[in-house]
Each structure stands twice: as C-alpha cells, then as structure tokens.
TrEMBL record:
Organism this protein belongs to: Streptomyces rimosus subsp. rimosus
A matching Pfam family: Ble-like_N
Source organism, top-level taxon: Bacteria
Residues of the VOC domain: 13-128
Signal peptide coordinates: none
CDD domains: SgaA_N_like (cd07247)
Protein name: 27 kDa antigen Cfp30B
Length: 258
C-alpha cells in the first residue's frame, strides 16, 4: 500500500474522496472530532459543499444532498484523469455507466464525472487543473488506500481497459485479491468477495483512512455516534477495522505496519 501523493496524481490513480450526506453540519462535527479536520467552503455546484483540511492541506470533500434526494450515503473514490471526456467514453464503451457529467466544477478547478463499473460499483473521475487531488495523504486522518469490493476480480478487466492498470495477485491479502498498478506501483486493490458480498451495498469502493491506533479510533467512532462494522484485525499491511459514520457511510481505518 502506497502513501505517496505523487502516485495518486498519476492518471488512473485514486486522487480524491468525497461524501454526500443529509446533515452537513453534523458530519463536519463527526469527522472534525475523529480526524482533526477543519473545513472551508468548496464549489457549490450540487449544493452546500466543503473541503476538509488537515495541517492546512486539502484531504477530502463533503457535500449536502438536497432534502428530496434519499440516496445511500457513501464515500466516493475519484480516479485521476488527463481527459475526463475521453475516459467517460471509454467507460461507456467497456460496459460501464456515466451517471453525471463530465462537467466543469463551478470554481473552474477541473472537470469531473460520476460513473459505475459493469457490476455497479460507483466511482468518480477528476481531471484537475491546478488542484490534482488530495494534497496530503498517508498520515493519520488522511486517505491511505482505496479498494474495490466486488463479486469477483474479473471486473478488473474493465479497469485495465479504461485506465491501463497492470494487475497483480496478492495471495497474502486473500484468495481473490488483486492490486492495480501504475508505473510499477500499487495504487488500489480489488477484493473479490464472492457470495460473502452483501446485497446492500453490493459492489462498492472503500476508502481507508490512516490512523495511529486502530482500536482507539474505533472507540472514538462509537463515542461520536458511529458504528463498528467489522472488528479490528491484523493483516499483512497493518491493523484494519471497518466503521460507519452516524449517517451510515462506511470507511476503513488502517494502522500501517512500521
């Protein structure tokens, strides 16, 4: 698992994560208390939106859904692109769906789109101008890894076709687990869960946030009104737990091995 911001800027690599919620103020309080994030207004293209900052640098975005939009609340992984319009055409041509965009962000920071792969996992595209993505990664409170949880790793063929990844089997991570590589570096994972994949949410991308102490972070999540979804466990990459915020958006906490 890589923590280098430069890798995240490579076209096809995860470069940003965002969350759309029903109560923006309450969500700011939760993540501010959990990760120490501060917030500043961001583009208002889809309504109220803030960017989260840690150490004065952008790490994530959170927006508020319109009251009538009863969508599932979930973190969205954005993949970097040099040409969002061309990538959107590739997605359609390879059996995926483009639900939103591509369109310009209203602060003219770049172009974005929301898409899904052939199995229904939602992800974003981000073609940045000056801001190419998260400015700080890999330290506690920032994204450190993104993973597609899906029925089978055969869906990696779609991502290879669209983004040019190389894929590597990772036996240490499970029976059906791949890493997606760009320029010789792993940038994301694909976990084939098979029959263990729940009907809800179905195939989906998971954001891992770095933490200095997974167990303490899980306790803090619960204290703040969130939930422990899957208990902390040791993996070859560090101690991992799955949690959810008060609105049910799931994310992983990772205390990396030293």
């Amino acid at each position: 698992m890589t923590t280098e911001a430069t890798t995240r800027r490579t076209p096809g690599a995860p470069c940003w994560v965002s969350l759309m919620v029903h109560d923006l103020a309450a969500t700011e309080q939760f993540y501010g208390a959990l990760f120490g994030w501060e917030f500043k207004p961001g583009p208002q293209h889809f309504g109220p939106y803030v960017r989260a900052y840690l150490q004065g640098r952008e790490v994530a975005g959170i927006g508020e859904l319109a009251p009538e939009r009863q969508l599932r609340v979930a973190w969205t992984t954005y993949l970097a692109s040099d040409d969002a319009d061309a990538a959107a055409e590739q997605i359609r041509g390879c059996g995926g769906t483009v639900a939103v965009g591509p369109l310009d962000a209203d602060d003219e920071a770049g172009r974005m789109a929301i898409a899904s792969d052939p199995q229904g996992a939602v992800f974003g595209l981000w073609q940045g101008k000056e801001m190419v993505g998260a400015a700080l990664v890999g330290v506690p409170g920032t994204p450190v890894w993104n993973e597609l949880v899906t029925r089978g790793t055969d869906v990696a063929a779609f991502y290879r076709s669209v983004f040019g990844y190389e894929t590597h089997l990772e036996p240490a991570a499970g029976d059906d687990y791949l890493t997606l590589h760009l320029k010789g570096r792993p940038v994301a994972g694909v976990h084939g869960a098979g029959d263990a994949l729940p009907r809800e949410p179905g195939p989906h991308w998971v954001t891992y946030f770095a933490t200095a102490d997974t167990d303490a972070a899980v306790r803090r999540v619960v204290e703040l009104g969130g939930q422990e979804v899957r208990a902390a466990r040791d993996t070859p990459y560090g101690r991992v737990a799955m949690v959810a915020d008060p609105e049910g958006a799931e994310f992983a906490l990772l205390q990396q091995n030293e």
